[in-house]
């Protein structure tokens, strides 16, 4: 009885006094789509929302945020945050979160967010809730388990709630037609011990749409047999469709494409309007990253391939004959 009352009191306190700090990422001077989706999730929690942005272009990012969604922006305009190193960002996040007595922290379930969330949870000794796909209320969330094959409803009794948001499950916040919110400049009070150092980064450059936000994706798997086949078959098809390129983990491990194009449980989670899977068997780990796509087209010579279980349109055939013909007709 005492425990039940305590849980109820904690939940009511969160709802009554709640305030949310959202971490927003910038890329190429713009807010990432995943961050805009996480702001939608934050707004569904029902609290006032403040945002933290960090890096040399933080002020520019802050000016893009809509005042009707965000009440305040904390700006840390420092080039040391440009590469989103979790060892540097986490002390900044925890400083703002604790100094301002926020009850909720929200971040995209991106590579950066997945680095920050557990570190922040360790600093303030709270249990994080990762990759939520729905918000029930300020203390109750839905998240996928078992590689997305089941959904789990989780209710927390923690006084401070830390969540990461699966961006494909929420519509991005619209940026048009709203003034920018007020800004407060923040600096890191005490620089952390130098346990990590940025050396360099090698970014994949492409004239194709970004995989994480593309409305059309052409993805290839082990069935393409080689890097040369992957490029010669999928690139022309993707160009005709204006689509991004994706791949299964098997294709990445075999060296067909860069690992930044991996779709699946250990890669990117995408939900485009159209997803074309070429030579993909449909392992459960891959399905976890793309089965929310609006229309799934599968092309595979094995009629029993698991990919057909989630496909809206399935074509059983030799990909080395079917794909060139499809590209030509397009």
Walk me through this protein's architecture:
The N terminus is likely disordered. The protein is elongated, with a radius of gyration of 22 Å. The chain folds into two domains: 184 residues, HUPs (Rossmann fold), CATH 3.40.50.620; 114 residues, 3-Layer(aba) Sandwich (Rossmann fold), CATH 3.40.50. A hairpin with a 4-residue loop joins β9 and β10. The chain has 330 residues and is of the alpha/beta class.
Notable traits:
single chain; alpha/beta; Rossmann fold; seven-stranded parallel β-sheet; five-stranded parallel β-sheet; 17 strands
Strand count, sense and barrel status of the largest sheet are: 7 strands, parallel
Q: Which CATH first-tier class of the largest domain would you pick?
A: Alpha Beta
Counting DSSP H or I runs of 4 or more residues, the number of helices is 9
C-alpha Rg (nearest Å): 22 Å
Summing up helix and strand content along with how strands pair, one would put the structural category as alpha/beta
DSSP E strands, number: 17
Strand order in the largest sheet: 7-11-6-1-4-5-12
H/E element order? HEEEHEHEHEHEEEEEEEHEHEHEEH
CATH superfamily of the largest domain: HUPs
Low confidence ranges: 1-16
Architecture of the largest domain, CATH level 2? Answer: 3-Layer(aba) Sandwich
For the termini, the CA-CA separation is 66 Å
Summed up, the domain count is: 2
The CATH topology label of the largest domain is Rossmann fold
The rough form would be described as elongated
Beta-strand content bin = 15-25%
Average pLDDT level: 90
Q: Give the helix level as a range of percent.
A: 25-40%
Family: Belongs to the ETF alpha-subunit/FixB family.
Cofactor: FAD
Binding site for FAD: 222, 248-249, 262-266, 279-286, 300, 318-319
Subcellular location: Mitochondrion matrix
